[in-house]
């Protein structure tokens, strides 16, 4: 098996939790995909970095990140995955800090840079579009949005004028919306 198949197995074995849950979007579901169980796993995290780099290999960007907490381990996995180009990672806070440098985006400066916004999974696109807005406010050029598992956010992200890619769909994981 390759990285893509190996990561899918980690997701289905570790991250898919069956039972009634309320998603951050407010919608209810009979299962939950808890990707932190994968993105923070010692064997799966390197796969996340390689799969997400491969998914976006034809997009030109030099920094990756998104809204904390879902995007953080993805960005770090991509940063450490190596590849044909170096990447910086950044973290977008939900709100600016009231102390210190009062930055909303932590890490290397992204002003004037081409960046990729990532998220672990997305149903409505709200979290990643919040990150995109913050990135644009500081002058970053967002080249696209990439998620590990798409729960339906593609239309909303594309409607915001951004290319969108997902490493896996719900069907890829044997789940129905």
Can you walk me through this structure?
The protein has 177 residues and is an alpha/beta fold. It is 32% helix and 28% strand. The strands form two sheets. Strands 5-4-3-6-7-8 form a six-stranded mixed β-sheet, with helices on both faces. Helix 5 links the parallel strand 6 and strand 7. Helix 3 (44-55) crosses helix 4 (72-80). It is globular. It starts with a helix and ends in an 8-residue tail after the last strand. The mean pLDDT is 93.
Please give a handful of descriptors for the protein shown.
single chain, 177 residues, alpha/beta, six-stranded mixed β-sheet, two-stranded antiparallel ribbon
Helical content band = 25-40%
Strands of the biggest beta sheet: in what spatial order? 5-4-3-6-7-8
Shape: globular
Tell me, rounded to a whole number, the average pLDDT: 93
Total helices: the number is 6
User: Gap between N and C termini, in Å?
Assistant: 27 Å
User: What percentage of amino acids are in beta strands?
Assistant: 25-35%
Number of strands: 8
Low-confidence stretches are none
> What about the largest sheet?
6 strands, mixed
Pairing-aware structural class of the strands and helices?
alpha/beta
Order of helix and strand elements from N to C terminus: HEEHHEHEEEHEHE
Cα-based radius of gyration, to the nearest Å: 15 Å
């Amino acid at each position: 098996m390759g990285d893509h198949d190996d990561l899918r197995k980690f997701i289905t074995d570790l991250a898919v939790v069956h039972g009634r849950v309320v998603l951050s979007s407010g919608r209810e579901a009979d299962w939950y995909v808890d990707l932190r169980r994968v993105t923070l796993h010692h064997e799966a995290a390197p796969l996340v970095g390689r799969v997400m780099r491969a998914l976006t290999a034809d997009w030109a960007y030099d920094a990756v990140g998104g809204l904390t907490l879902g995007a953080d381990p993805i960005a770090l996995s991509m940063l450490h995955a190596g590849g044909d180009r170096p990447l910086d990672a950044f973290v977008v806070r939900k709100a600016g800090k009231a102390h210190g440098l009062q930055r909303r985006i932590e890490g290397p400066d992204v002003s004037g840079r081409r960046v990729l916004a990532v998220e672990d999974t997305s149903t409505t696109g709200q979290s990643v579009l919040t990150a995109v807005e913050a990135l644009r406010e500081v002058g970053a050029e967002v080249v696209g949005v990439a998620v590990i598992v798409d729960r339906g956010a593609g239309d909303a992200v594309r409607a915001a004028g951004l290319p969108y890619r997902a490493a896996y769909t719900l069907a890829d994981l044997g789940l129905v919306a």
